[in-house]
Specification:
Strand content: 15-25%
Distance between the termini: 180 Å
Oligomer: single chain
Number of domains: 5
Low-confidence stretches: 1-6, 420-442, 675-714, 834-907
Amino acid sequence: MATLQTSPQRTLLAEQPTIRRSLQQLRRGILVYVCSEFVLLALLAMAGWFLAVFLVDYGLFLLAGVDYVRDGSEGARAGVGVFLFRASWWTVLCATAVYLVAQRFLYRLLVPFRPEALALILERRFPQVLEERLVTAVELADPQTAERYGYSYRLVQYTAQSAEERLHHIPVRRVFNWARLRRLFLGGLGLWASVAALAYFATEWTATCWERNVVWKNRHWPLRVMLMLPDFAQQPRRGVPSGGEMPVRVFAWVNVVRTEDPSYPSGWRPATWADLFPDLENTSDPVARERQQIWELQPPVGPHTWLHILPDSWRLLTLDEVEARHKAMSAQQLRSEAIENLGELGRAVVDYLLPRIADRLAQASETERSLAQPDEETLRWLPKSWHDWSLVEIHDHLRFARRLTSDEVQRRLHSLRRPAGVPEDTALCLMSGWSPLAPPLLTTSTIQQIAWTNGWAEQLPPLTWSSSDWRDLPASWHNLAAAELERRLTQASEHYSLLALGRAVNAQLGELFKELERRADQRHWGRRIYYRRLHVYDQITLEYEELLTEEERRRIRAQVERLPVNRTPGSFEYRYEFRRIERPRRFRVFAGDAVTPWYHIDVRPLPTLRELLRWHREPGYLHNSSDWVERGPIVTALEGGQEIRFDAPIGSQIRLLARTTKPLQALEIALQDQRETDFYAALASQALLHGIFGHPASPFALSANAHTLHFYETRNPFVQQLHFSAGSDEFRVWLRPLRAEELRLVLRFTDNEGIRNSRRLTIVPQPDNEPEFQYANFEIVRREAITPRAIIPFSGLVRDDNGLTEVYYEVTVIQSDGKPLDGPTRIPLRTLNSAITLDSLEHLDLGTGEGLTRWTQPRTVRGGIGNRSVARILPLRTVGSVLASPATALAPLLLAGPLALLQPPVLEPVVEHEFRYEMRPLGAPFLTAQDEFLLTELVPRNVTVPDPNKPGKTITKPLEPPYRLVVRLVAVDNRMTVGTNDQLDREPQRTVYHAAFEFNVVTENDLLIEESRREEEIRERCDNILAKLTRIRDDLVKMRNEAEQLDEDRALRFARDCEDAQRNVSDCRDLVQREIIRDLRLIYRELWFNRVPQKELDRLDEKICRPLEQLVRDGDQFDLTQESIALLAQRLRNERQRVSPANFDPAVVQINLLIERFHKIIQEIKGLIEYAKALEILRDLIKAQERINELLKQTYEKRKREELQP
């Protein structure tokens, strides 16, 4: 506070102490008044600010349902509205505080109060008393000023004395307006009293306002109804595909407790069973501390036995869920779920009471057991009808309720009324059957039935019951009659024990919830609410609107629709489903004073695959390897609708890498068209098959099959491994080896918003097809007759998609009686794998002079499309091995014969092999390196017959013709399958050509006899040619005889006849060259392939074939004959009548020579035919002699037997 600053005023105040005291008293009064007013105004402002905030905040919520904390926490600018609302109120409060502190307090304290101002205050407050004397004395107290202006200073002193005298009669405190301070005090007192009353009678709402607006906690106003949407709890915005559906579940909370958990912004959470019985000793757990603060639930609303009575699954539920079940179980008409819940409660009570009662009975003596009564704790959980029972009866009934179901009770009732036969009845029937007299048969079941009919069941026990029927029944029932037992069982069936126990516990639950309701309704004055029971409406309102774009909002207005949603009976849940959502929309739910925030449903694209890469781990034999071969990455085409298809070889292990368009929350890989009934159908068919065919291991096989089927139905057996993490857009799948059936999988995606989609994945297995023969046939030889040493040329084409490992002949020897000789012989194809022995090759004339060299050098076999190289082979192992190591190569020959020299194929993959015998000119070699043939000498044909010289002994000798050879062509590929531990096991496929080639094997003589028939036909044609040549010669001789009287006309006629003769000779030459020689060479070739004796071949070749070839050669006899006749015809045309008979002689001579040579060849053919006929006669004679010898032998044996007979 400032003081007087001029020395004249201080002098005056020192001279007039009364004036000084009055001014000082006024200065102190001003200080007290300013401070008092500041305090009252500050208190009044704070109380008014809090009340104003409370009234505005709660008024908006109460009247309009607006909660700025709840409503401002949603949307893109969540929290901005909350901050602005709070900041505006705090701005008002801060502005008021600044005004009060700066203007109403600091400014008044810091401004100096001069004596003139203080005197003026007194003058204005008491003008009639002071009459301006005080202000005059204070302002004119300076003597220098008085001297300067010329007024009397003594008069000023007098005025000061007069003012001092009057100040004695003035109360300085009356200067201030103390009534204003009283009014401020009363107003502030009223406001603070209102705040105090509000805080006492509405503690919860006052504290909530304090937390919301002062402490700035995001606390919602307490509601009478609290709704929760569990599907939107984590994310208020969910997506659906276009045209999809969105189910909405709304839960109404009933029993709630206070919580500080930030996941519950309202500050309330559903009460759990643990909240009713908190752990008072645990102070470290925040949840435990929260439960200890719930004073409404102290003391506990029920005994701690509830923690053991309820089933374990129930103790994890909220009180709302338990109460909903209680209401459902208390209804007049129980649903199936309510009956199940009652049974579950009953079983829990039995599990709790039965061991305790059993322990109590075990500790009691025999006398005490019969007199033991249940205590109050036990009776609490039992039906009222059980309260009069003894502890033993209660124990028996608990066992009865625990072990016997309603079906078991019905079965026992049925056996009472309709008794079945017992073993004693069977014995009685047998004894009556053995008795000579037929006594009346009264079995136990018959007596029981008569007792029910005649009313004896009241005294007769159930005679047909066995010990198993009495098991689990109370011991007190064992002495009851059948009628009483029926009444007890009927009562137990109608009032099922477990259900009765469950109803008793349900009644206790009702009392517990009534107590909770009573505690929730008690006064909460001066205390915050920690437990509440909220109201539940039977119907709520769902409001929704479709969201429009900015352009659409300019044209149309969004339509808001409100729909009533009813509560699901027996629960606190409301269900609604949005259908066919085509546009984004938002919705909220109203119920009483509760309104949920806006929840948004957006139309989102479906999650699907955007990239699919795969790696194939394929069996190596498909890629010319003996181990697994990795292929990839392979990009899979996704443009094909909902189904993705690709091919893969059978046995491949496929690894997939997939990337989706959206992050996924869940991924499921299942089988397409998988049904639960498939499991049972497979089991039934398996059991039926075992029942039809029978097998000692049927139960084990059925069990194993059931286990396998269960594995296939409950898991995807084709998925070996899956790597996926929630929230990722990538996953990896390892599949098991691909089988022969199509693998039809379905990939089900669920993104983070719950949108589901699926893609079908079909993997088409590429089977390793069996080798396929395009064609196959034999050449040259005839199947009607071949020799045992024949060479059979073959032609054919075999293909395989991956590779051939073996192509061979499968030769079966069929004896004359139709029985096969041993098993078939396998002889590999020579062009693919040599099967020719050394001895056989040495006797083959290949016509090139190369000998064995052509069979020992590696060569490339070409065939198929484009004459491409398909294999590089070593045709014959035998020769090379013998040259390198004779002992090693010939050692197997001693043990297994010539076939031991065969080698397995060591090839590059052969996908196509063509073997053929090409028809060559007559003079070309019969066999070349490219020809394929079967050497029949390699077929073992030894038979075991009795030794005629040594009775009882057998000898082995070659099979004598006739017999048959059945030749089949077989191809084997290089297929491999996946075995245990992913090992590749060789499992080739075998294909047999559809046609079997049968050859009749005869002797060489029989073959010559057969060929003689063809030679006979050739001889007839040669005779015709010879006759034709003879006629030509006769015509020439006739023309020469008539040439002596030759004129011009006759000469021209002879010329024409000569020309005709020339043409006839040419035709004969062509016929011989085109048919005769060809047919003879074919016979020769066939005989060569049948390997007849060389002398027979030489005779046909040197005596017939070569002379004929020489005869038709250019410049030889046919050619000379044609030239001579042509020269004669030309001369006749030119010289005509001048031609002499001598000019005909050259033509006649040449044709005579031709006829002579041709006739000689025909004689050779006749000689062959006659030789064959002689062989045929000899064969017939030998057969006749053999038949005679057989008849003689039979006659001799017959006579010998007759002589030995007595």
